[in-house]
Amino acid sequence: MFAVKKSQDIIPILIAVLIFALQLTAIFVPVMWSVVMALMIVYFCGTIAAFQHHHGHCSVFRNKRINEILDSMMSFQTGITPYAWVLHHNIGHHGNYMKQYPIDESENLDASNWSREDGSVMNRWEYVWYNRKRMHSRCTDIGQRSGKIFDKYVRFRRIHFLSIVVFFCLSFWISGWVGLLSTCLLFVAIPQFMVLMIFETTYDHHSGLFTEQKHEASRNILGSFYNFSRLNLGYHTAHHIKPGLHWSELPEYHKKIEHRIPEALIDRNESFVQSLAKTIWAGEK
Fold this sequence. Notes:
Elements: H1 10-26, H2 31-57, H3 64-78, H4 84-93, H5 124-143, H6 148-206, E1 220-221, H7 224-229, H8 236-241, H9 250-257, E2 266-267, H10 272-280
Parallel strand pairs: 1-2
Helix pairs in contact: 1-2, 1-3, 2-3, 2-4, 2-6, 3-6, 4-5, 5-6
């Protein structure tokens, strides 16, 4: 029942479970302790966001229900509810990531577009707010063409919000207003912050790369610590060419295609400090 497809996923699963346990614990301790725990949790939520992204492409468990439970648990850490990655990212982004404004009316725009309607490139925070505002409406637009996936997306969003209401009631019953404050921090503020940080990170993946060539459409980060903590998300060209490839296999595939990727799209910096910084804040490209 709990059999995983790839043994490399065991540690990320344990991290996700541990962080969820810390979230639950933090709503029943004094507020200052909740704040301290929240600061630690936020960093590891970056790893979990990368893992949930990969999980959306290549499910972790052999059992479908267990996959949905894992995805639901991670949604309390990333703010991305089950099947949202499939709709917005897999279908809306991967299927159209080189399709930016201006486009032909018959084409589908990238669900995470970084160009304005006049074809100019958005700045970083314009991109973040623009796409955050449209995230769920785009899931709905894509989902209405995707039948059963959209039904699951809606159902799990309802379960997600109902669960948060339960957490609020439970924390208030046990810890009063202090519990409510901690619950708001751990289950509302952190996930919503993470959604913004996910978009902030993705800005550098493709922004400004107007091209129809898949080897020239993504930026790559080869720093070992960055890819260790973000589960090889830095091998982005490889991921876009083979999105169903397990994250542990991306470095090997990257080696096979690296000669076709422009050097300007490869960040080879191996500095621990700079790699660590990239896991916290994408910064300017």
